[in-house]
Amino acid sequence: MSNYKSSRVLVLLGVTFFLLNACEGMPGGDARKNPPDPKERVKKNLEEGRGFRLDKAFQGDKAKGGDFVFASANELWRASLDIIDFMPLSSVNYSGGIIITDWYSDGDNINESVKISIRFLSNEVRADALDIKVFYKKCNQITNCKTSQKSGPLVAELKKKILSQATIYKKQNKDKNFKPYKGKGSAR
Prior knowledge:
Elements: H1 2-22, H2 38-47, H3 70-73, H4 75-83, E1 89-93, E2 98-101, E3 112-120, E4 130-139, E5 145-150, H5 153-177
Antiparallel strand pairs: 1-2, 2-3, 3-4, 4-5
């Protein structure tokens, strides 16, 4: 029995040592920037949208399966879909990070059509987060078509419109979720 108790104590000490070392260098540990009262720190973190909740972890079978709310929360994803909403979509895969349109022709010239592929390299709203490819198809007849990739002004224009729309969505989301911290020393 004494070996069992000593092994439990060693495991407990090992876990404690690991947890204490894991906290080293973590952001947010500056006491000058945080209230000393733990309840006030928790309140401040919740108001600023930091932290996590375990309430869904204990729901059993309800927690299984996908929760796809995140796709509508990603500003780049929403902006991309909004900008190309006039085009029919061929493939859309949020988890794979890609949107591919079907061939589109505006009706003025039925022998020419365009296809757009948008690949997401990051969820951050920045210029290098998107890889946009534009393909053109010119047909002389129904069976004689030539397809080519272009990197002209349409790619730059699409990227600019998507990024500016995503910036608007990000600002709206930030303004909607912002709650000022009302600590002990602040004006209420």
